[in-house]
Each structure stands twice: as structure tokens, then as C-alpha cells.
Specification:
- The chain folds into three domains: 74 residues, no CATH class; 76 residues, no CATH class; 200 residues, Phosphatidylinositol 3-kinase Catalytic Subunit, Chain A, Domain 5, CATH 1.10.1070.
- The protein is built from 15 helices and twelve strands.
- The protein has a five-stranded antiparallel β-sheet. Strands 10-11-12 form a three-stranded antiparallel β-sheet. It has a two-stranded antiparallel sheet with strand order 1-2.
- Helices cover 47% and strands 13% of the residues.
- It has 411 residues and is an alpha+beta fold.
- This is PI3K/PI4K catalytic domain-containing protein.
- One of its GO terms (cellular component) is membrane.
- It comes from Adineta steineri.
- InterPro entries: Kinase-like_dom_sf (IPR011009), PI3/4_kinase (IPR015433), PI3/4_kinase_cat_dom (IPR000403), PI3/4_kinase_cat_sf (IPR036940).
Length: 411
């Protein structure tokens, strides 16, 4: 294994055909840490990528390899495998995990067959030395869930899915990463909580789960199961009040939660794919419906009502302020939140061109969603109208009722 330190982001190489003179090559950059590298890889010829490999760390070689693997850059992939043992072992490990996931047989799962150590493809700085707790999730596609450990005993929970195209999920995560970078540059105190997604092939991939996250549905179940008949807002409020940092985290990540849902035009939002972490951060998961796509239910009900992209209820406000009796405080908080969300939204508008790697179609959708053609005042007014759609929208109740019926049928 290479002891070479991670050399950072930018690797100067040349983007030319093999028969061109080196002196005439135009300098390009292989930036494996760019959130959009998976889509920008076509800017580089195989020869350029191979030349970059010699000065990349093992972790960065892994990032390069899996991007090339998805796009079938076989020449580059073979070169990496021939010259980097850690990546080669990771390739073998993922192949075995893929076979187990496709078999979907919990009784025959033997994770000891997976070769170790290997670089975890979603977080290649994490060196897996053991896999445990393998199980097949009884849901659509029957994905394989397992835990990986490194030498220090640190753990990550992963899911390997097959039968799903995860490229769109990866694209949404890439946009969220760029949003966070923009917030940091513009001194906007907000965060989009995200997780790593790696499309391995056109219909399978690896997901790294958010640690210690609870679906919003848990708080509603706690309320419905409690003998004292507490409300879902009480359950969430009690959870947030258990730790001083949770309230601040909830406010800061709520801003990112709402603005990312609107910008990405997320759909299929319900209480089982809206999560809250142990430290109080709120986030979206599952991006199978994004960029204006809708479920059948949403297309049907959309005839009669608005469909919000980041639906939420008053429960979140009650958790932030600590009580539910003062409507005036809730109204003031809502106005403050709208102003903060506008600051997030406008920061993204200012840096709209950073999303061009999405491709012409997706970039145009994002350009329109950001209302770039409007002046700031008109864009802010339009955003506030969209936010009102997200707040206690009657579609939330209709979806919750439909989802509860689905859950009862499954159980």
C-alpha cells in the first residue's frame, strides 16, 4: 500500500491524444475531489487520467477508479488495478458484495468471504478490516445492509442496492456538497446534511448511511404508542431538548433541508425519508424523484393541490422554540426562517454557474428553479410563496394517510 500522503485536489496533467507532441498539450486539471467529477470525467482523455495516477494517493486513485468504472473507461481501470493493490482488493470486495446482494438470501450471507483490508469506495480514506451484521432489507429490491470496521474500531453502516439507478442520487448529493461549499464561502450559517452515494454500475451501487439517524416517522410512532397520548410535536420537542446542541443544529440544517428540497425539486417526501440525526440535524434521503419528477400519487393529487418539495409541519417549529402555545412566537420564527432561507437561496443563485457540470438539461432546470431571470425582490417574493406551500400543506396529510395505508398493507 502506498504511504504517499493525500496530495490534495488539483493534479496538473495534459488532455491530448497520444500522438500529439507534449509541448503542444493544453494543461487541464484532474480534480478527483470535485463533487461533479463523475460527470466531468469526459473532459479528460484516458492518457491524461493515466498520467495523473502516478501522483495520486491510494484514496484518490480509488475515487478516480470508481468514476472510470461507472463510465467503462476500461483502459484506465485496468491500469489502476495493475498498479494499485488496495484498489484492486476493493474491486474484488465489491464484486463479492454485489453477488451477495443479488442473491438476496440472508441465510447464505457469509461476510467473511469478502477480502480485506480494502478502501471503502464511498469514503476511500476509511480502510475496511472487517464486515459484520449483514442482512437483507425486506423492501423493494431487497438491498444488502452491513457494517464495516477499520483498525481503530470505527464503524460505518452501508447498503448495497441493485435494480436501481443511483446516478441521480449521486447527482443530488453532488449538488448538496456544492451548496455547502457556497454557504461556507458566503458566510451563510446553514448546512445541507448528506451522505455518500456511489453508483457502481447502471443498476447497482453503494450507499453509506448517515450515522445515528431516525426517520421522522419514529416520532409519530412514539406519539401514537405512548399511553399518555403525547403529540408528535411533544415527542420531537422532547428529543431536541435532551441535548443543548440539538436545537442549534436543527435550525441550521433545517435551512439547508428546505432550500435543497426546493432547488433539487425533490418529490416523494414522506416521514420515512425525512431523517433527524442523534445530534438534531434534519436531512432528506432517497432521491429517486428529483428535478421535477413525481410519483403517481403526486401526479394525481397535483391536479387538486400544490405539491411541496420540502414539506414540513409545525412540529419542527415547536421543537425549536420549546413550546406550542404562542402563535406569535411561531409566526416570528417563521418570518426569520424565511429570511435565512432567502439568504441561502440567493447565495446559490449568485453561484449558479458552478452547477454547469450537471449537463445542459439539468442545469437549465436548476437555472429556472433559482429564478435567475427575476430581480432579487421578485425572486424573494416567489420563493416565499413556494415556502408557504411547504408549510403545513394539505398534501402532507393526504400523503401521510396514503403512506400509513401502504405500511399497514406491507405489515
Amino acid at each position: 500500500m502506498s504511504n504517499m500522503p493525500d496530495l490534495g485536489i488539483n493534479v496538473p496533467i495534459h488532455n491530448t491524444d497520444e500522438n500529439e507532441d507534449d509541448d503542444d498539450e493544453s494543461t487541464n486539471i484532474v480534480n478527483v475531489h470535485d463533487p461533479f467529477f463523475l460527470w466531468g470525467i469526459f473532459e479528460h482523455k484516458d492518457r491524461a487520467l493515466i498520467r495523473a495516477i502516478s501522483i495520486l494517493s491510494d484514496a484518490d486513485c480509488s475515487r478516480l477508479y470508481w468514476s472510470c468504472h461507472y463510465h467503462k473507461h476500461n483502459r484506465v481501470c485496468q491500469y489502476v488495478l495493475d498498479n494499485n493493490a488496495p484498489v484492486c482488493i476493493a474491486r474484488d470486495a465489491i464484486e463479492k458484495i454485489s453477488i451477495m446482494a443479488k442473491a438476496a438470501d440472508s441465510k447464505s450471507l457469509d461476510l467473511s468471504e469478502i477480502p480485506v483490508p480494502f478502501l471503502l469506495p464511498t469514503s476511500p480514506q476509511f480502510i475496511v478490516t472487517e464486515l459484520r451484521d449483514g442482512s437483507i432489507i425486506p423492501s423493494k429490491g431487497k438491498p444488502l445492509k452491513f457494517t464495516v470496521l477499520d483498525r481503530e474500531g470505527n464503524t460505518k453502516v452501508c447498503i448495497y442496492k441493485h435494480g436501481d439507478e443511483l446516478l441521480q442520487d449521486a447527482m443530488c448529493v453532488a449538488v448538496m456538497k456544492e451548496m455547502n461549499a457556497i454557504f461556507k464561502e458566503e458566510n451563510v450559517d446553514a448546512e445541507v446534511v448528506l451522505y455518500e452515494v456511489l453508483p457502481v454500475d447502471k443498476s447497482e451501487g453503494l450507499i453509506e448511511c448517515v450515522e445515528n439517524a431516525h426517520p421522522f416517522l419514529e416520532f409519530k410512532k412514539t406519539a401514537s404508542d405512548n399511553k399518555d397520548a403525547i403529540s408528535s410535536s411533544d415527542a420531537l420537542k422532547t428529543f431536541i431538548e435532551k441535548s443543548p446542541e440539538r436545537k442549534g443544529n436543527l435550525f441550521r440544517t433545517f435551512l439547508g433541508f428546505v432550500v435543497s428540497g426546493i432547488v433539487l425539486q425533490l418529490s416523494d417526501r414522506h416521514d420515512d425519508n425525512i431523517m433527524i440525526t442523534e445530534d438534531g440535524k434534519i436531512l432528506h434521503i432517497d432521491f429517486g424523484c428529483a428535478f421535477g419528477q413525481q410519483t403517481k400519487l403526486e401526479r394525481l393529487l397535483g391536479i387538486f393541490m400544490d405539491i411541496p418539495h420540502s414539506p414540513f409541519s409545525e412540529d419542527v417549529f415547536i421543537a425549536m422554540i420549546g413550546h406550542e402555545s404562542d402563535n406569535e412566537i411561531i409566526t416570528q420564527l417563521w418570518q426569520t426562517i424565511k429570511e435565512h432561507i432567502w439568504a441561502c437561496f440567493n447565495a446559490i443563485r449568485l453561484h449558479k454557474n458552478r452547477f454547469k457540470p450537471l449537463g445542459e438539461e439539468k442545469f437549465k432546470q436548476l437555472y429556472d428553479t433559482l429564478m435567475v431571470g427575476l430581480n432579487d425582490n421578485d425572486a424573494r417574493d416567489a420563493l416565499y410563496i413556494e415556502l408557504e406551500k411547504c408549510y403545513n400543506n394539505r398534501f402532507n396529510s393526504a400523503r401521510a394517510f396514503y403512506y400509513k395505508i401502504q405500511q399497514n398493507i406491507v405489515s
